[in-house]
């Protein structure tokens, strides 16, 4: 048995229509401040929570962004995720981090989630895409951004790091601190 509180439950308690409750909760100007306050009070008392699925169907927006990363085990992505999530939250979005584990068939599955309207957009941090003409055609018509690593032969919008300039800045900083023996340590090369 479900304890979900509906608009009808609130309407019944206040003896108003469910549409009045809906309008009051959505901030519609046709509802008086007095009625709006009563509706909000009863909604809070009953523990009303809006149905996110119904809302997304009505407004044709999920409020979700897919962040597809190459390898979720790489801690580098966690800092990036924190920044993306902070910015997304300010814009009213949630972020779902998806791991493609260097497998482009999984990227296709995430693209299908976007095509099926389970998310409003996608940020791809995979560094590569399949040579699938169909996938590339689909991506061209979707709200997708490539981030951090350029993808060859891809015309999607992108946000990239200037690795050369960043490297120069890091080395110059170390030199300014008086360091003379500077090494570069990196992880294993990425599988193609």
Polypeptide structure, described:
The protein contains 8 helices and 5 strands. With 192 residues, the chain is an alpha/beta fold. A 5-stranded parallel beta sheet has the order 2-1-3-4-5, with helices on both faces. α1 crosses α2, α1 packs across α3 and α2 packs across α3. It is elongated and about 75 Å long. The chain starts with 6 loop residues before the first helix and ends in a 16-residue tail after the last helix.
Query: Into which percentage range does the β-strand content fall?
Result: 5-15%
In whole angstroms, how far apart are the ends? Answer: 51 Å
Mean pLDDT: 85
How many β-strands, per DSSP?
5
Estimate the helix proportion, in percent. 40-55%
- Using only CA atoms, what is the Rg? 24 Å
Placed side by side, the strands forming the largest sheet appear as 2-1-3-4-5
Structural class: alpha/beta
| Sheet with the most strands, sense and barrel status | 5 strands, parallel
Poorly predicted regions are none
- Categorize the overall geometry: elongated
Tally of helical runs = 8
State the order of secondary-structure elements, H for helix, E for strand: HHHHEHEHEHEEH
The gist of it:
The chain is an alpha/beta fold. It has helices at 7-14, 18-26, 33-46, 52-59, 76-90, 104-115, 133-140, 163-176; strands spanning 64-69, 94-99, 121-125, 144-148, 158-160. It has a 5-stranded parallel beta sheet with strand order 2-1-3-4-5, sandwiched between helices.
